[in-house]
Amino acid sequence: MLSSATRFFKLLIEQRQLILSMAKREVKSRYVGSQLGFIWTILQPLVMITVFWFVFSVGFRSKPMQNVPFVVWLTAGMAPWFVFSDIVLGSTNIILANVNLIKKTLFHSQILPVVQIVTSTVTHCIFLLLLIGLIVFQQLEISIWFLQFFYYFFAMSVLALGLGWLASALNVFVRDVGQIMGVIMQVGFWATPIFWDIYMMPERVQFYLKLNPMFYIVQGYRDSFISFVPFWEYPVLTLYFWCFALTLFVAGALVFQKLKPQFADVL
Predict the structure, then answer these.
(1) Looking at residue 126, what is its pLDDT?
(2) What is the torsional sign of CA 190, 191, 193, 196?
(3) Which residue of 45, 115, 122, 257 has the lowest C-beta tally within 10 Å?
(4) Vertex 193 angle, CA 209 and 91, to 5°
(5) Nearest to 82 by CA among 73, 72, 93, 90
């Protein structure tokens, strides 16, 4: 397993120019024919955050969470979920969207979900800039702990890549997988404490909710941008997350590698 992981990371280094080139092309293709082009990358999350602020802060008059305005708390939780969802759903259909490349014997199709991660990172960076803008606007503290989000982003990427490999490979043979993943993402969104605080639940229910690996990531982003809690303060939760994420990562890699030779025949 260690040798396989080493070969994979070596492949990423060797193919880094191709990965960046494909990601750049994918970002551009999203706005082909659009007058505003890349500006939509900024406008879409900005409009979404503005709507949520108006509905919850002005309309429902939501109380501050962890002593910060609700819109900041909400945006910090939404940021990792939306990039995770974008990576997973984008990866699910990425093999079908690149049939011409898959049929080329020299193309390493396992890099396609990595391309999706790079592509989604562009929007995620915009989202984070808006979050920091909200923090500054609300006159909240700026801290070196902001940089901790890099750890949580890496952790989320490992989880998403494993799930992306698994879903993209299975989707070639069972096209319902794409619809199933869409439903899972919808359920997962509401099952993850993004709009609501997990500590409002009974302790027994909290235990089961924390089994959702995205709880670790969402809470981690809030710890990085709001409460400034280091990830090593949660040793048990950190160990559980990495056991889950690495198991899924290995399982996704093995399934993808097993089914990969048959992609061209099925497509």
Answers:
(1) 87
(2) positive
(3) 257
(4) 90
(5) 90
